[in-house]
Amino acid sequence: MGSLRGSCLCGAVTFEVTAPPLRVGMCHCSRCRKHSGGAGLVQARVPREGFRLCSGAGELEVFRPAGGMAKVFCRRCGSSLFGGSWPDGPEVSIRLGAFDDEPPSGPQFHTFVGSRAAWDVLPDDGLPRYEGRLPATRASR
Q1: CATH number of this structure's domain 4-117+129-139, picked from the four choices 3.90.1590.10, 3.40.1190.20, 3.40.50.720, 2.60.120.1130
Q2: Over its length of 141 residues, how does the chain's per-residue pLDDT go in tens digits?
Q3: Which residues 6+ apart lie within 8 Å of 124 measured at CB?
Q4: Distance CA 131, CA 140 (A)
């Protein structure tokens, strides 16, 4: 995989990913629904050393809900960009919609399907579904 570029809607924040995703999942939890305004978030987890913020550090806003992971967005345009354990943790969770280049894969699984919205009809996509978070055996891959 070559590098992938990403940015916010207004272009103030740009980033580059140089490592292939460790995993890509669609989360249906209530926090991801509220954060996205939709059925949930599709996000790619990449190793921290494979992520580089290129511009816009001063435009980033970080929200850390109690007991939750970081939600990082552009304070100018409001685009949801990345999060997880960013900036100091081992992985960065990047919203697939924030990529300018086509990511190497789409979702590989669904998480928190047990708390999805009543109107959220899961597609018959053959992907594994987990009632809660991704099991540790899958997360470490």
Answers
A1: 3.90.1590.10
A2: 689 999 999 999 999 999 999 999 999 999 999 989 999 999 999 999 999 999 999 999 999 999 889 999 999 999 999 999 989 999 999 999 999 999 888 999 999 999 999 999 999 999 999 999 998 876 655
A3: none
A4: 18
